[in-house]
Amino acid sequence: MITVEHVNKRYDDFTALDDLNIIVPSGSLTALLGPSGSGKSTLLRSIAGLEHPDSGTITIAGRDITGVPPQQRGIGFVFQHYAAFTHMTVRENVAFGLTIRKQPKKQIAAKVDDLLGVVGLGGFQDRYPAQLSGGQRQRMALARALAIDPQVLLLDEPFGALDAKVREELRRWLRRLHREMHVTTVLVTHDQREALDVADRIAVLNTGRIEQVGSPADLYDRPATDFVMSFLGQIATLDGHPVRPHDIRVGRTPEMAQHTEPGTTNTAQVSRATVRRVVRLGFEVRIELQHADTGDLFTAQLTRGDAESLALQAGDTAYVRANRVPHVLHSARGKPPRPAPGIDPGTGANVDPPA
Ligand SMILES: Nc1ncnc2c1ncn2[C@@H]1O[C@H](COP(=O)(O)OP(=O)(O)OP(=O)(O)O)[C@@H](O)[C@H]1O
């Protein structure tokens, strides 16, 4: 478990971390998610020992590491642009941390072969970094970070420089790797989709503070603040209520839009709108609509099947209704948070109920 308590970090008169508290449970894959400049990297680098907080404490597995040098913290670190040793082979790069720790050669060779297999680079051991693709280089970086059996793995936008398809593959791969190895992992990302895809816990940062920590479903369905709600996924406003685009029911008639899922109640009203544009994106279809009464523009997201059976086109009239409105726990930061079950009112962190 990593605990960060009352950590402050200023750069001149700029506050990068503002009395920040977070608990990262052992074995979790926690994403630090937030807009640019919210302090994600500063927090990660403080855990790594590459930045020194002005005040506060950081512990790993109960040990206060606040003043401990990075190499003695038991951490593996991977950056967006991995600084590989270009004159060393993949094998030598991965072995580096073990070689400088003067482990027996045979043991190192066995460990490195094992890790290269784990990251899917078996057979690439004699190549040089320049002979690898960007995705392969990042996997080599992961193998190198894992070689020292770290207690904690810290990843700073590790796939940020790669194209979308490779990123997606590596996310899936990271998820699997984490399932197999259970190393407590903290991943910095500004990409909400990446956080939702990969992490089992997400901490949303804003201006150097944690807005909320919880499972992806917690944050998505029960955002603690407006900021979390708007940051995690798109939000449309329908009749004054925030609603996720895929929670808008669209019909050709008021009755179709009125339909309520069995077992749910819904008091939202049906509104009339005009279809402005229909955008097909893979299996999803986005329908851009304009509210007939207010003139507001908003987007509904449908599956391709639903969209095809509706066959709406630009200019058509549609009827819409919010199927489900996210429940924001407290509407703005700074107001005393209403303690909700499972939320620590002091830190905003989610507290798992005792087993
Ligand atoms: N060495 C530094 N000197 C001065 N200001 C810094 C320094 N490092 C970071 N900052 C500032 O602290 C703030 C937080 O930076 P940080 O890199 O932690 O943000 P981030 O959330 O990781 O952003 P990004 O997603 O853009 O990397 C930023 O406004 C940044 O300009």
TrEMBL record:
Disordered: annotated segments: 330-355
Does the keyword Transport feature in the UniProt annotation?
Answer: yes
InterPro entries from the UniProt entry? AAA+_ATPase, ABC_SmlMolc_Importer, ABC_transporter-like_ATP-bd, ABC_transporter-like_CS, Mo/tungstate-bd_C_term_dom, P-loop_NTPase, Sulph_transpt1, TOBE-like
Q: Specify the ABC transporter domain's residue ranges.
A: 2-232
Tagged with keyword ATP-binding: yes
Name listed for the protein in its UniProt record: TOBE-like domain-containing protein
Q: Which PROSITE patterns match?
A: ABC_TRANSPORTER_1, ABC_TRANSPORTER_2
Bilayer-crossing residues are none
Q: Which organism is it from?
A: Rhodococcus jostii
Which keywords annotate this record?
Answer: ATP-binding, Cell membrane, Membrane, Nucleotide-binding, Sulfate transport, Translocase, Transport
Alphabetical list of Pfam families matching this protein:
ABC_tran, TOBE_3
